[in-house]
């Protein structure tokens, strides 16, 4: 816990001392969101209001480790160019002494209200408070304090409130762990955002057809899309099953129907949102055009973080690109927002055998590839994409072990859409039917994209720049 003046002085000092390192870092993204310094993780409080997209995020400005978190704050008119604002929430009160953890935002009477978890740790455990704050038009925040305390039957791991309105009432879902160490999503109802009624468990391990399905569920998000109610969440503690659940922790969703009269939610099977190496804690918003837009953290907690080469420059992690969600044949599809097309320049188009396609600069670029199976795309010496008759394999050289590792998608590939930004790659398969997101750290002397194979392919390539 900090005094406000002390905290801001420390942030300014950290920023001033890190400026030279940040500007010189080859791996820093050109157009993806990253923190000005320190550690960034979960996106928070996504909301579109009066023409501005607001993106808050979990931020430790003092270290590249997961310490006491604040809420960083950025705004954008177009989801491409982002402007940093003053930190929105800092841990200055007893009920948030060990961090202002993740949460969400909602517009009420033309004002943005923030919901977040106040994290408190003590010698024999921890507790959590769900807190309310008001974002003023000048960017300052007025904290109203806790509105939900820790419910009975759960450990101190209750967090990440996502709030929405339905009819005359407000609802909020929370990620939770019960006293039997089972992951759950619990929910509440309120008429005024301050007084909340506990409605029970909406979904979870050992509920609604799930067997044992993780010891903790984090970062829930519930929204209505094309007549269905979609619940996103991040279960921890799943065992790898063939090519499924390959990462340390997962991020995925179920699709169903929420009954507000009976306080029940019937849903289908769990599906992973992203099959790549680095994707977690996604959050969505509906913008003023009616689009459901998702942004995720392109990272994972506790997995190879200490070995990121960017730590030497004083920063770690970035967000995914903003993605539009649609529902198609019982599956969420993700596509980059159209605004990213404004980054394109120097278009090159080629139809040829893969072996005959020349190499292209990799640093910040976009490709759309169509054609026969059995070709490879290589990025520097650290990423290899193999397209075959079974599907696609994404191979990456692990920056800790320097060994090759892989993630797989199975199916018939008709179109591959690739976004690259210095040290990240996002693969969108068949108009977003599947996505693979990953970080990588290439040899700075080898920065080309090359093609191999006898397949005939059609390629469109652009450089990307603001």
Automatic annotation (TrEMBL):
Compartment list: Cytoplasm
Record-given protein name: Sucrose-6-phosphate hydrolase
InterPro entries for this protein: ConA-like_dom_sf (IPR013320), GH32_Enzymes (IPR051214), Glyco_hydro_32 (IPR001362), Glyco_hydro_32_C (IPR013189), Glyco_hydro_32_N (IPR013148), Glyco_hydro_beta-prop_sf (IPR023296), Suc6P_hydrolase (IPR006232)
Recorded catalytic activity of this chain's protein: Hydrolysis of terminal non-reducing beta-D-fructofuranoside residues in beta-D-fructofuranosides
Record's GO cellular component terms: cytoplasm
Record lineage: Bacteria, Pseudomonadati, Pseudomonadota, Gammaproteobacteria, Oceanospirillales
UniProt function note: Enables the bacterium to metabolize sucrose as a sole carbon source.
Record domain Glycosyl hydrolase family 32 C-terminal: where: 415-451
A GO BP entry: sucrose metabolic process
SMART domains (UniProt xref): Glyco_32
Keywords noted in UniProt: Carbohydrate metabolism, Cytoplasm, Glycosidase, Hydrolase
Domain Glycosyl hydrolase family 32 N-terminal: 32-336
Record GO terms (molecular function): beta-fructofuranosidase activity
SUPFAM superfamilies per the UniProt record, alphabetical: Arabinanase/levansucrase/invertase, Concanavalin A-like lectins/glucanases
PANTHER family referenced in this protein's UniProt entry, alphabetically: BETA-FRUCTOSIDASE
EC number: 3.2.1.26
Pathway named in the protein's UniProt entry: Glycan biosynthesis; sucrose metabolism
Similarity comment: family membership: Belongs to the glycosyl hydrolase 32 family.
